[in-house]
Specification:
single chain, 83% helix
């Protein structure tokens, strides 16, 4: 019961934070209008409903529900990492004031980390599915 409560609150808080982060990231990248609060709120609600539906489905479908809540929240996080990595690179090159732009060394490490996020997370998901099948 304790594990269920801990993992459930982790999923709920993760979904709440990630949905807002995604809406802000999409607004910064110009995919949705940053000034249109209604559009951002619709995206947040859609992401929350989809994420929680996925978590609830995993809870009822699988043999070990607490483990599946952990796996589901980890899967959602792993899907978010490439978006975050690419978002950081986008912000670095297109939305930063040149007067405060980081130097070459930092930019190289941003590329290394951004590409690592974009490759390792989906690769890890595929590896888990490959090893399970």
């Amino acid at each position: 019961v304790g594990a269920f409560c801990v993992l459930l609150t982790t999923v709920l808080s993760g979904v709440a934070g990630t949905s807002r982060l995604m809406a802000d990231a999409m607004a910064v990248m110009g995919l949705i209008d940053a000034k249109d609060f209604g559009q951002r709120l619709r995206f947040i609600r859609l992401f929350v409903v989809l994420s929680l539906t996925l978590s609830a489905t995993a809870f009822w479908l699988f043999e070990n529900p607490p483990a599946m809540l952990l796996i589901t929240s980890s899967l959602i996080a792993a899907l978010m990492y490439p978006i975050l990595g690419i978002g950081v690179l986008y912000l670095r090159h297109f939305k930063i004031d040149p007067r405060i732009a980081p130097g070459t060394g930092i930019t190289i490490w941003l590329w290394v980390c951004g590409l690592a996020f974009a490759v390792i997370s989906p690769g890890g998901i595929l590896l888990v599915f490959y090893l399970r099948l």
